[in-house]
Design brief:
24% strand; 3-stranded mixed beta sheet; L-arginine/glycine Amidinotransferase, Chain A; 20 strands; 4-stranded mixed beta sheet; alpha/beta; globular; 360 residues
Length: 360
């Protein structure tokens, strides 16, 4: 049976912008769920403050606080951190956890200056029960920010998806993993969806013409294979890809397989995909658990690239590689040893809101 999208779909041919394109703001939530960082919550708000401080130097931050009390705590901490509060807009909305990368919609642009926020449904990564408040963030945000919100559906079903599962180049190519989207047993987002379903719905809703399928994600990733921990576009034809040289490390084999998959990939214009190797930090383990520490979980803003660091010898090397990938942007390390206990770092916590496209 040929997959058919449930109409009405978007009234314009969409394009999913890349993260390095002009942004109106970056969205982030004040940490609300202490259980995300059991026994280690105290330093996390200060790490979030540091992320906000860097973004707010050059760009608006749209900060969600679960209660008025959390909003006041955020203001107090941000003042102490000397953040530019004139660039921080705080809104109160109850959240379960608030990992903005995964609960936010994806903005698409049209050729005539149209735009819309495409809402993929959120079900707690098909793993956690506390997701019902987070799932209501997109309509609230769209009203506050003045966006048209449309819900992605395929074959009559809502499509469950998180932003960390996708990485676009802004020119029709998209990185995803089979582990996240196609595993028939573990954390099944959309039971019954095939590779062809995903490729067709990405074309319909996001304007994607080429899906680049990687295999597995990294050890410790409770999302079961989000691509933003392993491989990211840094320009329309170049990706950084994590590599673990130690054969005894759990990440070695899957990352090597992903490297092999990218060899020979050609983009829509026929030119080869360029691949830049990004190191991995030494394993980060806390309370007996391997954590998903990765330099690939960086955030690109209008002026900077914020990169998680782990008190590791490879921190400096990773920052240097990314500085070469982003000429004209300041590359800044964000201490993430405490953040990653929550099983995510800088990119997972944030989501960029693209600037409005120019009118035709």
């Amino acid at each position: 049976m040929t997959p058919v999208a449930l109409k009405p779909a978007l009234p314009f041919p969409p394009r999913l912008p890349a993260e390095w394109e002009p942004q109106r703001a970056v969205h982030i939530a004040w940490p609300v769920n202490t259980a995300d960082w059991p026994g280690k919550y105290a330093p996390v708000p200060w790490a979030v403050c540091e992320i906000i401080r860097h973004i707010a130097e050059d760009e608006e931050v749209f900060l969600a606080a679960a209660t008025e009390r959390h909003a006041e705590t955020a203001r107090r901490c941000l003042r102490r951190a000397e953040a530019n509060l004139s660039n921080v807009q705080i809104t109160v909305f109850p959240l379960d956890r608030g990992w903005m990368r995964d609960i936010s919609p994806l903005w698409v642009h049209g050729p005539g200056g149209e735009s819309a926020a495409v809402r993929f449904s959120f079900n707690g990564w098909a793993k956690y029960d506390n997701h019902r408040l987070d799932a209501q963030w997109p309509p609230f945000m769209a009203r506050k920010r003045g966006h048209r919100l449309v819900g992605a559906r395929w074959n009559g079903k809502a499509v469950f998806m998180e932003g960390g599962a996708l990485d676009p180049n802004g020119a029709g190519a998209l990185l995803v993993t089979e582990e996240c989207l196609l595993d028939p047993v573990t954390q099944r987002r959309n039971p019954g969806f095939s590779r062809q379903d995903y490729e067709a719905l990405f074309a319909e809703w996001l304007g994607i013409s080429q899906v680049i399928w990687l295999g597995k994600g990294i050890a410790g990733d409770d999302t079961h294979g989000h691509v933003d921990d392993i491989c990211r576009f840094v320009n329309p034809r170049t990706v950084v890809l994590c590599r673990e040289p130690s054969g005894g490390d759990a990440n070695h084999a899957p990352l090597e397989e992903n490297r092999e998959r990218l060899q020979g990939v050609r983009l829509g214009d026929g030119r080869a995909l360029e691949v830049v190797e990004l190191p991995m930090p030494a394993p980060v383990v806390f309370d007996g658990m391997r954590l998903p520490a990765s330099y690939a979980n960086f955030l690109i803003t209008n002026a900077k690239v914020l990169v998680p660091t782990f008190n590791d010898a490879n921190d400096r090397k990773a920052l240097g590689i990314l500085a070469e990938c982003f000429p004209g942007r300041e590359v800044v390390g964000i201490h993430a040893v405490d953040l990653v206990w929550g099983l995510g770092t800088v990119h997972c916590l944030t989501h960029e809101e693209p600037a409005a496209p120019p009118r035709a």
